[in-house]
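Hi L.,

You mentioned the student needs an example of a multi-chain input paired with its predicted structure. This one should do, with 642 residues in total across all chains.
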Amino acid sequence: MEFELSEEHRLVQRTVREWATARLLPLAAEMDRSSRYPPELIRELGDLGLMGVFIPEAYGGGGMDTISYCIVMEEIARAEAAISAVLSVNNSLVCYPILAFGDDRQKRQYLPDLARGRKIGCYCLTEPTAGSDAGSLAATARDAGDHWVLNGTKIFVTNGVEANVLIVYARTETDPGSRGISALIAEKGDPGLSVGKVEHKLGIRASSTCEIVLDECRIPKDRLLGQRGRGFSIALSTLDGGRIGIASQALGIARAAMEDATAYAKERRQFGRPIAAFQGTQWKIADMATRIQAGRLLAYRAAWLRDQGRRHTREASMAKLFASETAMWAATQAVQIFGGYGYIQEYPVERHFRDAKITEIYEGTSEVQRMVIARQILGAS
Amino acid sequence: MDVAVCVKHVPDTEAAIRIRADGHGIDENGLPFVMNYYDEHGVEEALRIKERLGGTVTLLTAGPVRAALALRSGLAMGADAAVHIEDPALEGADHLGVAKALAAAIGAQRYDLILCGKLATDDNAAIVGPALAEFLGFPQATAVTKLELGDGTATVHREVEGAIEVLRVALPAVITVERSINEPRYPSLPGIMKAKRTPVTTKTLGDLGLAPGEVGIAAARVEVLDLSPPPQRRAGRILQGEPAEMVKDLVRLLHEEAKVL
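Structure written out for the whole complex:
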């Protein structure tokens, strides 16, 4: 067994850590307060190759593996979680399905701009009545001869406000359940496509989350992604990779909480000594470090299996489940270590606390992850 | 314009340094190493010259196996080629020995310009650049904050006490750079992948026509006698009492103990 990062992985880690510390960390509090990020960050991320980490260099991407993607997500989230959400959607949920299921023309048309940060992608799966039960979605794509006509409302779309390229899951067949679903590519400016309500969120506030409304939206016939009626399996295979990224994002948030709490515990004095001298604090820090390390090993293993082309549905869910619960737990401990200062906006841990929560919810709630893991062990019932 | 940049692999300045038990070196076990920050500015300057005028950027280092990582990160920034002078005899070399080895590797090629960092953050010596110029018989300018290239010449700015000194040197020359000369780029992921595919040329002292005795410990004119950690910083003091009293105390302490007034 090899537990060492390669030379390239270490270079990626150092580069992204330095960039994120210099460019994101100083802006994090203000981005959270104003619920926006400077748009030029996307171009910088694109120039660094971070918007398409595992997209081949031939399509303008980073040409790297899933382990590198984990490293990128952890380092970005450690500095600022909302940008890691922007990255996660663009990499895992948009670039990946186009790379894996798109035809040659679609890859050449969309991947270079998405990977270089000249365009942003979003993923439109969830609907008001189809969340964890995504297979019950109601949006439709009507075959109208030389084009598709899309109708429906998608919600909780990360990057939806800025997105130029939208992966839309809609029903093309009359079959009920997940079998009648197809994946299609919509573009900003398609007639009948509009941005609906923009949400105000608890955490990852600088990234946009909104409704996407499809009202007799016409798109050309060649925007079908993969085979007709195979959309749900595309969605699921996309989420396997996405969950590994969310695991690493969660670990980045957990690490931020731990690093901030550690620095504070060494500085803050009560009863004549730093609170780090008290065992109650030490045990919290020790448990944070242990859980983060365990989560990282789960994420790296799932990423490694993916890079070997092996099945990793169970491992991706385990990593996502454990890492996201670690993030929430570590952020809670960090707030506790900061005491009253952890509850106010002057210190960053309340932001980590708010940012951590989403990792237990999106790309499959903790309950869904447990369902996936149990199904892998018990067999489908 | 073909530019060579000399780089050094040094301990990360943020890492805690432990001194080896024999007192003559540092314990490298688990210590993170990076390219010397000043050298990163040298690489950046070379890349900007290449972007403006065309040509190539070649990196050179003389050091142990791990030093290849410094070359790798410079290649990831965008350099074209890298030469690693790696020889057991270098272990005992002093700054002049390292400069002699670099000069031998550079002298055989036809570079228009040699860039170095002003100093390396591990030993702060600032010797290798100037010594390299002497061995090559090239003009030199040190601690440069601005570099402009003309026809066969370079015009450089140096910050001197209260003024900026402007010098012109004939090329080829050795120029060492200050950190304010530019803002180094971050290596991109495609850059890192390209660097992985770029072969690093490894040369022994013998390949460069040098005998171990000319460069290694036998030739060293400087011997490290001892290394000791800097004294621990004393804890701060918090003055108490009435503001007027505290100000008086503070002024007295700054004058008598800290000796800054």
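You could point out the following to them. The first helix of chain A runs from residue 7 to 23. Chain A has a mean pLDDT of 96.

Best wishes,
N.
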